[in-house]
Amino acid sequence: MVDKKKDTTTEAKILDAARKVFIAKGMAGARMQDIADEAGINKAMLHYYFRSKDQLFETIFKESVGNLIPRVKALLNADLPLFTKIEMFADNYISMAMQNPYIPMFVMNEVNRQPQAFIKKMFGNDPPDLSKLVEQIEQEVKKKNIVPISPVQLVMNLMSLCVFPFLGKPILSMVIGLDELQFKNIMEQRKKAVPEFIIASIKK
Amino acid sequence: MVDKKKDTTTEAKILDAARKVFIAKGMAGARMQDIADEAGINKAMLHYYFRSKDQLFETIFKESVGNLIPRVKALLNADLPLFTKIEMFADNYISMAMQNPYIPMFVMNEVNRQPQAFIKKMFGNDPPDLSKLVEQIEQEVKKKNIVPISPVQLVMNLMSLCVFPFLGKPILSMVIGLDELQFKNIMEQRKKAVPEFIIASIKK
DNA sequence: ATTTAATTTAACCAATTGGTTAACAAAAAT
DNA sequence: ATTTTTGTTAACCAATTGGTTAAATTAAAT
Predict the structure, then answer these.
(1) Is the confidence at residue A50, as pLDDT, over 90?
(2) Which CATH number covers residue A17?
(3) pLDDT per residue as tens digits for the range B23-80
(4) CATH number, domain with residue B124
(5) Contact assignment for B111 to A172 by CB distance below 8 Å
């Protein structure tokens, strides 16, 4: 253990607390005092380390999405077969979301709140480029490896099948009647089930 | 025209404004003053007609979901072929969401906020019962009309494919690059495309 | 016409919220 | 050792928020 104290730093405590509160309650619902309490420190420290609520929020937000973006971008333009990309996206995304099940809702929510600001914060200068993937899909259609399908619909389907279960978890758990463990198992299955489902639908 | 003035009633103006503001900003983000301004009336009227913010919110919330619930319940237990149910669900849900594209996010969001209270508000005494649909799916599997698939996964897939595009609209519009009209067209296509996609995947 | 009830308003209130400040303590640098 | 910087706190502040009230206006009932 090189540096055991690192994650009990005041700054780290603030970030942990802020992550928890912001993700649970969103930007508008979160209170600076809640975060301070959760971190077990004085509220003034929040402003000492991060100037304002906005800035603290932005830190958490970037952190939440920041991990995923580069991986998605890499995958999009990777030189891999279409089916492999589908399999990898599902596995990657679902694995990530299982570790942080509330991030998808948190992100989706804040993107909805201010779609403008989001683009900048998230992607900075270069937004993800789907053109290569789209072309790849069109190629597969042309080669008659898959049925004719609009690339947009296919991408939408893939994202839907991977992301929605985490957004709708409370509703799904309720309607279908799942406890925490069952949900986890279903999601574990889904890493394989989603690509299989998609491929079964489009493969010729 | 029996009663032309009905929708310019103060109460109606409040409801219209509240719907707009709550759906746009969520419970925590919405301000009573915003709603009053939007309705062009004095803030005190909000409390005169609806005792509190909570109560006004609940009115809007119930109204937002209330329309859908009975239709879903009816469909679940209807005496119709599985494929027909899938087709009808997709068409019904997507049509509804196209008319009120922000409701799905609004509802999902508030369900996440307090899943407990939601059940009561939403379903009252009798929550939706999936058992008939589940049995139906199992039957189709047994009869080898469809490939072996977990009913839970299938239901999750159907909901994902219908609901997610509206939750992720800003992200999708951004990533894929869609304007309002294109999005609308894609969703219109989807009423048929989703059932086709599912059925192609599971039909034997 | 006059009383009564329903609506609407402006002014006000207490509580909460994000944020600041000045004093104080602990480390680091000298 | 002592100055200086960094970290921390309690008290405070102005603005905002949901909510109230008493007076004024309008509509309904008598």
Answers:
(1) yes
(2) 1.10.10.60
(3) 999 999 999 999 999 999 999 999 999 999 999 999 999 998 888 889 999 999 999 9
(4) 1.10.357.10
(5) no
User: Which residue of B132, B134, B159 is the best one to mutate when testing the A interface, meaning the one whose CB has the most A CBs within 10 A?
Assistant: B159
Judge whether A173 and B176 are in contact, CB under 8 Å. no
In a shared domain, residues A30 and A111: no
Number of structural domains, chain A? 2
Residue B132's identity, in one-letter code, is K
Question: First and final CA of chain B: distance in angstroms?
Answer: 54
Are residues A42 and A130 located together in one domain of the fold?
no
Distance to chain B for A133, nearest Cα, Å: 11
Using CA atoms, how far residue B8 sits from A107, B12, B21, B48, B190, in Å, is 37, 6, 18, 17, 36
Q: Taken in order A34, B44, B42, B52, is the CA torsion positive or negative?
A: positive
Task: Tell me the percentage of chain A whose pLDDT exceeds 70.
Answer: 97
pLDDT bin (cut points 50, 70, 90) of residue A7 is low
Which domain covers residue A172, as residue numbers? Answer: 67-202
- B32 CB and strand D closer than 7 A: yes
Same domain, B133 and B112: yes
Q: Which of B48, B63, B78 is the last residue of a domain?
A: B63
Amino acid at B174: M
Write the pLDDT tens digit of every residue in A180-204.
999 999 999 999 999 999 999 999 9
Whether B153 contacts A166, CB under 8 Å: no
